[in-house]
Amino acid sequence: MSHVPHTLRAGNWEITLSADGAISSARVCGTEVLHGLIIAVRDDKWETVPASVEVHSVDVNEHGFSVKIHATHSGGDVRFEWDGRLTGGPEGITMDFDGIAVTDFPSNRIGFVALHPLTWAGRAVTIVHSDGSTSESIYPVAVSPHQPFLDVVGFRQATDDGLVSIDFGGDVFETEDQRNWSDASYKTYSRPLSLPFPVIWKKGDTAHQSVRLGFEPYSASVATTNRVELEREDVNLQLGESVSLPSVGLTLGPDDDLAALTPEIAALAPDFLRVDLVAGDELGGVHVLRDALTLPVIPLQLTLHVGKHPTAALEELRDVLEGESARVTAIAILDSEAPATTERVVSAVRSILGEVIDGIPLIVGTDDNLAELNRNPVSLHELGASAVTFCLNPGVHDLRSVSMLETPDALPAMVETARSLAGGPVVLGPLTLRPRRNLYRAGVRIDRTGRDASATDERQHSAVAAAWLIATLGAAVAAGVTAVSLFEISGPRGIVASPGGARYPLFDVIAELGAADHAVGCVMDRPSDVAALALANDSGAVTTLLLANRTDTEQTIVLAESGERHVLAPFGAEIIRRDAPLPGQEGTQ
């Protein structure tokens, strides 16, 4: 679909149209109003049903544009087709669709999803409700645990140049804070979650929805024409202040053969290995712990998922740790029966493990998304813990690489929200590209040491994954995260193919982290396009730069200290190693 224009203009409006027929950005007088507008189809497990999309008609003229789109969503029992129209003129932008069920199927959601950029955080918005009334609110600064806007049919929000209107037709909508799941946006969607789901669609059932964007300028002098397409300039990078580098660990996964992976672990030099254990009717994962204790001395972080009847399992764990507890640097205590840690499981662990864990820092929180912690907050003081945790992955809602590379923008607010809720330090982990398991399938018990088939992402072994990790670590460092558990070591979700096998771009990034003593922040004029993390030796001198292109276009980075230029491929990553410190960094303390 190379014929699809990247940019379409009408009046004060300018939109970026993706080849898949989605609006990836809508701007008025240069201010971004929507960061995405797509038509989504979800099955009864909340999985996104993939679509085959054809943009088969594009008409651009002096007044605006008109685009026609056809899509077929197919997956499992679901087959849904729609015809969409996107038009722009002096009156504004309108997108609508008519859809039809081709088969019988259950679905939790079909319809428009509008993404609002995080640049609106803290700014006022007027909500238009289904009965015609309005209410005043703001886009949340801290991550909102529940829907901040309900019963929505429209928004009114002010820019520096005028008043924007966003009007929805065909259903009632509501808004959630997608930072709960690592996404860098607020999301307005239908159907409201207060209504029963799934909806059973019958063959021949139809749907129609529309979204209209309008604008009323404050002054007639607001320009509507003569926009100049500016050529992208180089990204200038300067070294900033020295910052602490979090402890960086690796997650032991179901495919990891520890004895065979000893050379890889030595080369990566992690600060710790994360071992997941399930204290249920028996102690699940104990064989992994026993294997880890036979390795050369590497600190271990135990993540303990405590079930309903954990006594026998905890007693076995106590026996295994007897005389070995010095190897354990932290224990994360999680409740297998609840979204986040409860007093029940902390008390059980303390009472049974007793002196074996004296002096070992305890971590509490959730092994799942921030949403679970945000809706079920824990107190470090009340639970006697040292830090709070949640996992991080960019693939819950939107699997596009461009969206993946945007998720680090959500991390500062996520970390601050968790820190404020719990009252102390934040650790992250594990980091994965896809969720390890689907939490939202009704009636399905979660296997805490297993992985869903959908947990594997084909980009795991590509530069895209390395670029995402660099950008995410840069955000985590800036946010003051104290520890991070990274990917599994081997296999389809790992950083090597197999013991002694191919090493993927992620491997090189993580090995550089293992060799570093400190980090130095990087200051750039376009951080939304490029991410960077500088690593320093024990004297504070920068010896390695990790660079990531967060966009689908080539980017050139200029190092201010040396004037060097580095060209990054789309979604690319580069490691710049130095035998000597960068100019201006010699002897830095």
List keywords for this structure.
single chain; 589 residues; alpha+beta; Beta-galactosidase, Chain A, domain 5; TIM Barrel; 2 domains; 8-stranded parallel barrel; 16% helix
Textual characterization of the structure:
Helix content is 16%, strand content 40%. With 589 residues, it is of the alpha+beta class. The strands form five sheets. It has a nine-stranded antiparallel sheet with strand order 6-7-8-9-19-15-14-11-12, with no helix packed on it. An eight-stranded parallel β-barrel has the order 21-22-24-25-26-27-28-29, surrounded by four helices. Strands 34-33-20-30-31-32-35 form a seven-stranded mixed sheet, with helices on one face. Helix 3 (311-321) packs across helix 4 and helix 9 runs parallel beside helix 10 (505-515). Strand 24 (300-306), helix 3 and strand 25 (328-335) form a beta-alpha-beta unit. The longest helix has 17 residues, at 463-479. The protein folds into two domains: 7-217, Distorted Sandwich (Beta-galactosidase, Chain A, domain 5); 246-464 and 473-488, TIM Barrel (Alpha-Beta Barrel), CATH 3.20.20. It has ten helices and 35 strands. The N and C termini lie far apart (53 Å).
Short note summarizing the structure:
With 589 residues, the protein is an alpha+beta fold.
